Amino acid sequence: MLELRDFSCERDNRLLFAGLHASFAAGEIWHIEGPNGVGKTSLLRQLTGISREFGGELLWQGRPIGECRYDFACALLYIGHQPGIKTALTARENLMAYCPESTSAQIEQALTDIGLYGFEDVGCYRLSAGQLRRVALARLALSTQPLWILDEPFTALDTQAVAALEQRFVAHAAAGGCVIITTHQKPSIDALKVLALGDYQPEVRFV
Ligand SMILES: Nc1ncnc2c1ncn2[C@@H]1O[C@H](COP(=O)(O)OP(=O)(O)OP(=O)(O)O)[C@@H](O)[C@H]1O
């Protein structure tokens, strides 16, 4: 789906990474790995098109991203490190805003599946950090986009929710999707692909 060729990132005249080659294909789950400040979020922002400053090439289905931004945007679901939830609204209202094409029954089911039964109509300002993260992640159940890019999706989740989320990634990949995440926890996912960012020596390995 998405390909990097000789990719690099510079911030404030500091080279974070360079010479990165990677190909994110249908059916794959990728973990972008590395210590604090190495450039994981910066890379995700480049991959999503939020940041257009990069060296090298970024291709979507074989085409330079600059030539197919609309197609790419339609195929992408990005959830950043901040949950992106409007706290003045309820969980249900947030999902209705994010997924206007979903039916009320689908939204109800997504909220139940993610463990928010009974909290659907509570103002999000009254939810815990983990519940807020669940509201954001409920979008995954309603997503029709093949490419998911998620920055630290496990943050604030309990162990049961982490396991359920990993299963959702596996199901999405099995259905032909592609998932790219950052996390400081090691995911328990078979055939996980790892892109490790390090000082000037990016390394791609498979586990
Ligand atoms: N808006 C910004 N302007 C300038 N430099 C920035 C900006 N945001 C981040 N940086 C710098 O870019 C570097 C990489 O930041 P980034 O957030 O991509 O790292 P990260 O690997 O995701 O870190 P963490 O694991 O702590 O989330 C850091 O040194 C940071 O200071």
From TrEMBL:
UniProtKB keywords: ATP-binding, Cytochrome c-type biogenesis, Membrane, Nucleotide-binding, Translocase, Transport
Record bears the keyword DNA damage: no
Ranges for domain ABC transporter: 2-207
Pfam family membership, one: ABC_tran
SUPFAM superfamilies: P-loop containing nucleoside triphosphate hydrolases
Domain of life: Bacteria
Keyword Aminoacyl-tRNA synthetase: no
Protein name: Cytochrome c biogenesis heme-transporting ATPase CcmA
Lineage, highest ranks first: Bacteria, Pseudomonadati, Pseudomonadota, Gammaproteobacteria, Cellvibrionales
